[in-house]
Structure formats: C-alpha cells, structure tokens
Amino acid sequence: MKLRHPEKINNPISLIKKKPRWIRSRLLDTKNYFKTKEIINRKKLHTVCQEASCPNISECWSKKHATFMIMGDTCTRACSFCNVRTGKPVDLDPLEPNKIAQATKELNLKHVVITSVDRDDLDDGGAQHFSEVIIAIRKINENTTIEVLTPDFLRKGNSYIKVVAANPDVFNHNIETVPSLYRKVRPGSRYFSSIDLLKSAKQINNKIFTKSGIMLGLGETKDEIIQVMDDLLSANVDFLTIGQYLQPTVKHYPLNRYVHPDEFEELKKIALTKGFLIVSSSPLTRSSYHADEDFSKMKRLREEQSECPKLI
Q1: Is residue 167 part of a domain?
Q2: What letter does residue 73 receive in the DSSP assignment?
Q3: pTM of the entire structure?
Q4: Are 92 and 99 in contact (CB under 8 A)?
C-alpha cells in the first residue's frame, strides 16, 4: 500500500493559515482545461500540476500547458513540504518517452517542461530515462524547446551528465529553501550538492540555460535568501524563481507566514541587480509557471547581451 509521507503521521498537527486575498488562481478557458485533462488521462501520464497540488493548474491547463512528471507518481523521498506520494515506486514504463512526445504534439506545446519524482532506487537516479524522454520529444517536435526540472541525483555519481548530454534547452533544479531549514524541509537532500549540480551542468554545456527556485514562508530570513542568491550566482545560474510555500495538509511542514507581494517585488529587484538574467518572483510563481514566456524572454536577453559591444 502506498502512503503519503508515512513518517509524518506522528508529527504535531499544525493548522493551515487562511490564504490572503492575493493568492487566487484563475480558470481562463474551460474547453482547453478539459482538453488538456483528457489527453493526460488518456495516455495515463502524470503531471506535477496534479500530484503536487499546484495552485496554478486551472490557469495553466486552460492555456493547454502542463508539466509532465515522469517515472511514476511515487517518490522515494519524503520532503516535508511536498504533496507527492511517498513509497516504493513501480518499474519504469519503457513507453513513457513516446507517450510524452505524443502528448506534447497533441497539445501543440512550443515549450515543454519535464520533471520527475526522486528515484533513489535506480542506479542512475533516472538520468537515462530523462535522456530518452528528451530524445523522443525532439524526434517528433522539432520546434519545441525542452526544459527539465531534475532531482539532485544524490550519490549517483556523474549520472546527471546523461541528462545534460541530451541537450535540453533549460536545466532546472530547485534549491527549494535556505541551508538552515534543509534538515527539516529536505532531509534527504544536501544544499551544496544541489548547488554543485547546477554549476556542473553549466560547465558541461554553457549554452544551456540553468534555473533554480526557492520557496518563501518556511521561516527563512532575508539575509538567508540573499545568501542563496549569491550561492546560485556562483554556480552561474541564469534564472531564479521565488514563490510562496503553500502548506498542502496539516501534516506537512507548517507555514510560517504568507509573504506580501511587495516583498516578492523587492527580492526580484535585488536578484536582478545581483546579476540573474531573469527573475520570476510572486506569491504564485512556480518553476514551470509561464515557463514558455520566460524562456522566450531569457533567450532574447542573452542574444541582446551577445550583440552588445564589449568595452576594452
């Protein structure tokens, strides 16, 4: 039997704070929403939109955007902030790469985001499967750009190189929170291993855009957030996302506070001043929220930078 975070059952229950007025999702096109849902269900695919209870699912699916979650719906880790199922995963589906490619085509996606559960049970953490998905998408979607949001491949050696070698347009790995909260929020992960992963991906292929994200409202301080920015910049990360943590259930990590939109805007200005190519910062920002629009902007900004005459 699969359980959601079985080790959290004995944790003290914390009441979920009422959402403020500025956290509201929108349904834009009901017809497109159900069309997206039909394609995903027919092909028996998983999305992080559903599994992680994303607040933007209505808006994104109404635009026929979905973030595919590969390698099943069961994670081998139990991060206290995450609503994805924890337990023993099923075997990999060898047909999944082709299913994802076909769904990308049916949805006519110009930019597709692929993420996954953690698969610590696999020798390479699922890196080869990521590679096969990227290759399958490119085979029948030549003009579609591909963004991967990967796990950390902790203790899997250089397996992540398989993902980078498949040449995604964006390599994303979320740092999620500040180092002082890792033991409670991401007990199965290591902060500097995640930083090194992002740095290594860029070193292997500096044409790939790298991206990472952090949640606010877990109890972090402003100074800690700024330190994370500096650490990500030291890893040559191009794109930073900053969003509000929303506590999924009373058994998950307790929400410390809702961060006001003005604070998100202030952090965006700081991050841009520090040198990130692009920053998305708002209460509803998530890694793949408006990912297609942000990718186009990021690509344009890099082209503009390369055309600027260098000072001697």
Answers
A1: yes
A2: S
A3: 0.87
A4: no
